[in-house]
Design a protein that fits this description.
single chain; 136 residues; mainly alpha; globular
């Protein structure tokens, strides 16, 4: 099965969001293996999951604390923990995307905004755009 790049972005975002949700609800313990969810969403064995998804999710999960530190100075009057989890997931995924591929900042922001427009309110989408523009 061929998975389009847009679908790969959606899947990576979904896995990161799921991990954030599990971490928050479980007080630091995730309930679901990210590999299992990637396989399920891609409808294939983990070995067949597109490399992009694996790289973005793995980078995000392994570097969560460091990525948050990149965004915190740009949040102005906000605390990371108070941001909606989907907004956090979008920011995390975008940063990881920049780290695992040679891609222009404008492309990463465009992808994040397209996803944001689908899943969060317009005000939050503008917030995501502003934070990414400053932090990346």
């Amino acid at each position: 099965m061929s998975i389009s790049r847009n679908q790969q972005h959606y899947i990576a975002l979904t896995v990161i969001y799921d991990e954030l949700t599990d971490f928050t609800i479980g007080e630091g313990k995730t309930f679901r293996d990210a590999r299992e969810l990637m396989s399920e969403l891609c409808e294939c064995e983990y070995e067949e999951v597109p490399t992009y998804i694996k790289q973005v999710v793995t980078y995000t999960l392994n570097n969560y604390g460091n990525i948050v530190k990149v965004f915190e100075p740009h949040l102005r009057n906000w605390k990371w923990e108070r941001l909606p989890l989907l907004t956090q997931a979008l920011l995390l995924m975008s940063y990881a995307h920049m780290q695992v591929e040679e891609v222009e900042k404008s492309v990463v922001i465009s992808i994040a905004i397209n996803l944001a427009k689908k899943y969060i309110e317009e005000k939050q989408a503008k917030f995501v755009h502003g934070i990414l523009d400053e932090a990346l």
